[in-house]
Design a protein that fits this description.
alpha+beta; nine-stranded mixed beta sheet; 22 helices; 29% helix; globular
Length: 863
Amino acid sequence: MDFNKFLLAIGVASTVFMVGCGDDTDFSKTTQPTPEPEVTPLLQAFAPNGALKAQIRRTQYGVPHITADNLESLAFGSGYAQAQDNLCVMADGFIKANSERSMYFGPHASIDFSTGLPTREDNGNLISDFAYKALKIRALAETQYTQFSYHSRALMEGFSAGYNQFLADVEAGEQTAEPFCAGQPWVKPITGVDVASYLFSIALLPGAANFLDLIFYANPGDGEEYLPRIVGPAASSVQTAFVSDMNQKLIARAANITTPDTNPRDLGSNGWGLGKDKTENGKGMVLGNPHFPHTGNLRFWQSHLTIPGQIDVMGGSLVGMPGLVNIGFNKDVAWTHTFSTAEHFVMYNLELMAGDRLQYMFDGEAMPITKETVSVLVNAGAAGMLVAEKDIYTTAKGPMVEAPPTLAPFGWDDGQAFMIQDANMANLDPLDHWLAMNRASNIDEFQQAFKDYDGVIFNNTMYADKEGNAFYIDDSTVPGFTDFVVNIIKTTPAIIAAKAQAGFTILPGNTSTFSFSEPMPYERAPKLERSDFVQNSNNSFWSTNLAQPLEGYSPMYGPERGELSLRTRMGLTLMNDAAGDDGKFSLAELEAALLSNRAYLPELELADLLTQCAAQGDTPVIVSPTLSKDLSAACSALTAWNGKLDNDSIGGALIREFAHQFNQSTMLTQAFDYTNAATTPNTLASDGSALVALAHAALNLEAAGFSVEARLGDVQFVEKSLPDGTASGVKLPWPGSHNAEGGFNVFSTSLSGDDTLIPQHSYPAVMDVLSGKAAASGLTSQGYHIRYGSSWMMTVSFTDDGPVAKGLLSYSQSSNVLSPNNNDQSEWYSTQKQLRPLLFTEADIQASLESITELSVQRNNEW
């Protein structure tokens, strides 16, 4: 598709049409939010006289209950406790955001830490460092820091002080750091600006951060001008050889770039908010079930945070969140989040001025593409430390992107180029937004948080409270287009076709018609209040409650009337039939629904498949000209399957492999009908294709050395890595399903994209018997090595006596292999089909108290 032929033409036409009636935002200028005025004087931001003081009480499983008298001190305690549990993860997050990974670890992200040598010469660190420079993560944190509210700065300053205090205590011999990073130069004191840099980097996770390769390779030249240059003294022969090899690998990588998946399916969640008509006691309930990496920068961490009379909140947060809870509850309200289908950025097709690749046309005027030379330090091993510089190219709204010819049409030529504007760039609101949610005492105050701030970044929100209200909103940060532009995006065939091809919205950049400077306001975000339920399992807002579909919103929020995933259909099935005969949930029933480990695909088609099995008998099924399979044993295993994906589920691994060979579009004959979205498509095809898929699945499983009757717990496991990246040898059987089979409580073998630093061992992939490529299920010679999926699991019920909650952090509280809390909750999950009580009341805390730490430090500067 040649975007230059029609998207820019659309832009010109729109300019003519919109004169005098459109968005006249100057596309060449940026605006920054003004600091939120301090309208809550009762909540003290900074510690009086700079005297930070916090108490950390830890209960069973290492859960910290942190108490302080002001936000700065609360974050001080949070920073200290997080560093105790996840120091290496935190340190790497700061290094990455500051473009310093190459300096400490060399250019390659895939490192064998037992040898210090790259396992794959991918230049991942180098690309990340330069792309983050182009995104101006650190630079924006420095220039915008004073624009944060007092509350936000107090949290970031206190958090950095707590982190630094832990490092000081390690140096003094009073604390022990994780062995992987203890004493390493990249584990160093931080400032509030470092915390801001990290938060800015996380904000771009669903948007511009997916385009690091395309940002790195962006260059107006037609050759290899994008390659870094080594500056400084004359290079030695060793250095010259290193740079030559590095650049050859960069050239090779350019030929294999693929379009990013900006809303990865695994990076999802389930969330329910139950209202008074759906609960036994008529009060609200919440189910939180984020599916996130078990390692790396996106780990969850549990805490209980208290400022007496001001904040009393408990739940899970991403490591690095300073002194706040992302998914949790207080005595009045509870909430959870899921990954939204919304698009948080726009790629703009720029019309270049004739004869000049560094100027583009905007409303008839030439606008500059700015060239800037930046540098990073590169640890070249035996070649020493090198200074690498390259040219980066940006507009006032965002970085340029370019892809090689294999990804045309994202090229930069004489006529056109492309840039990305991310609505979350330098987002100043996240801490204030979550602080307001943490403090809310009713639905009005909770909703006010979304009216005041745009800091939820990339999440849907599901809520319930003690009054029995249920509420949903997708107020993730979406480009704030006018209604006129929304209609153009919805109805213009060229824009629709471009999105279908690319996977994201591409708009003309030659007119202010399509520009935006602010996110979509609260009033225009999809939202729903109900007295029965709201839910989301990573389909769009449209299916929040099919009794009241949400329609008429910007397509930037996601599709309407679209086919639902098997996981969403499983969730809706559980909502309908897991609440007992009365149709109303108790806390026990809510927990059982979360951990049921049912799977929608086999529930949908297994009966028909077994009928086809019986008809096939022992006649082999032809899989390919050279492969056939007698399905007698496989069909027998499916007959013995207990309907769950539990450790003891006979045939559970066969279900997994079959799901990865199943093709809904060809193997289900009843097409999708949006008026019956929860139950269509359905009906197994009778053409034998499903039997071929089953035979293919059985062959793959047997190729890995497992029988078709294998119990899931004999194949699916969690095994953590030692500090040198080798296997611990402790394999825990792991119950749970997968997206492919339509599970709800799902896991996968995927590694996080942020796992580039923390060492993770792996096992050889099993090759698919037909394609010769790695099995789509992630099956290895040892089975399914789980590293992704259900993380912070939480159920909350409001009662007359306050909230009663249960939860579990599936991979445990600490990434430190020396910590007693490194594997304890993992062992619980492996063997117990239940969550554990969340200790919220003072009586429960005292009954389970294991340690008390009193922290204090005197800050020298005043705010």
